[in-house]
Structures are given as C-alpha cells and as structure tokens.
UniProtKB/TrEMBL annotation:
Membrane topology: Multi-pass membrane protein
Similarity field: Belongs to the PRA1 family.
Protein name: PRA1 family protein
Presence of keyword Transmembrane: yes
Keyword Acetylation: yes
Location(s) in or outside the cell: Cell membrane; Cytoplasm, Cytoskeleton; Endoplasmic reticulum membrane; Membrane
Gene from which the chain derives: Arl6ip5
Keywords associated with the record: Acetylation, Cell membrane, Cytoplasm, Cytoskeleton, Endoplasmic reticulum, Membrane, Transmembrane, Transmembrane helix
Length: 188
C-alpha cells in the first residue's frame, strides 16, 4: 500500500479568526466525532507540521528522552491495536469510545515513561501536540470547501498517514461507507 501525503492546507484556513471556531455539541457525540475525524483527515498535514515543530523543540532540549518517549507511545499504541483486533469486546469498545481508547494508551504510556525517565518530555513532546490536534479538530467548523474536498478525497484517505491511524482506531470506516453510499446514489 502506497502512503500518500495529504496536501498542506492554507494557514489562514487552518487557523483564522474566531468566526470559524465553535464549541462542539457535547450532547451529540456522533456529530462531534464526525467533526473531529473529518478535521483530522482534512488538516492532517498541518497537524503534522505543528506536531513536528513541538516535537523538534522538545527533542532538541532532551533528545534521548524524546526518542524513548516516542518509542514507548508507538509500541503501546501498536500493542493496544493488536490486542483490540484479536478481542471482539475490545474492538467494540475501541469503535464506540475512541477517545477512551486513546486516553488508555496515553495513560499506559505515561506510566511506562514515568518508570523509564522524564515525564515532562512526555507531557510537552507527546501529549501537547496530540491535545492541540484534538482541541483544534473539535472546535474547528468546516466550511463547504472542506466538506467537498473530504468527499472528493474520500476514496484515497486510507492511504494517508492520518487515514491509516484512524483506520487502526476504526474511526474511518463509517466515513468511507457513507461516501460509498453517496457515490452509488449519485450514479443512480
């Protein structure tokens, strides 16, 4: 499978004034989850750039601890994904409560990193970029251009880095299924 990098979105689209941000509807978790997933897919290269900047700063200040922390998080994530693919109950929990699944991964990583070394590297180098992505994806309203581009790019999204991660968390399947239904209806 060839992984493609999604296009870098214009920074004024990524972070304009407060008119494009709004509090999510906490009563409708499905709608909030849809907003987060679509924003993660649409702005994934921008998020990668922001995360790379934060990781670079922390990595410059403490390179060994950043390497250890990143390795621990990746291994814990891969372990949890593997276990959830082999246990149906965990797979259903992961699909229904993706945020809880990510929080469990982060807490497990935190405890391992606190045992191995520097917790501040974990907080600033790993958790801060993830928190910034989640907050932005939760608050950023999508405009017509975002929605259209997500529909157009929908078929190839599993080949992008964020698409692969969301697929591992089983959060993208619904979007792809909806898109497939939309295309089949358009053909009729």
């Amino acid at each position: 499978m060839e992984v493609q990098v999604a296009p870098l979105r214009a920074w004024d689209d990524f972070f304009p004034g407060s008119d494009r941000f709004a509090r999510p509807d906490f009563k409708d978790i499905s709608k909030w989850n849809n907003r987060v997933v679509n924003n993660l897919l649409y702005y994934q290269t921008n998020y990668l750039m922001v995360a790379a900047a934060v990781v670079s700063i922390v990595g410059f200040l403490s390179p060994l601890n950043m390497l250890i922390g990143g390795t621990v998080v990746v291994l814990v994530f891969m372990g949890f994904v593997w276990v959830s693919h082999n246990k149906d109950i965990l797979r259903r929990l992961k699909k229904q409560y993706p945020t809880t699944f990510v929080v469990v991964i982060m807490l497990s990583s935190y405890f391992l990193i606190s045992y191995l070394g520097d917790v501040m590297v974990f907080i600033f180098g790993i958790t801060l970029p993830l928190l910034l992505m989640f907050v932005h994806a939760s608050l950023r309203l999508r405009n017509i251009k975002n929605k259209l581009e997500n529909k157009i790019e929908g078929i190839g999204l599993k080949k992008t880095p964020m698409g692969i991660i969301l697929d591992a968390l089983e959060q993208q399947e619904d979007s792809i299924n909806k898109l497939a239904d939309y295309i089949s209806k358009a053909k009729e």
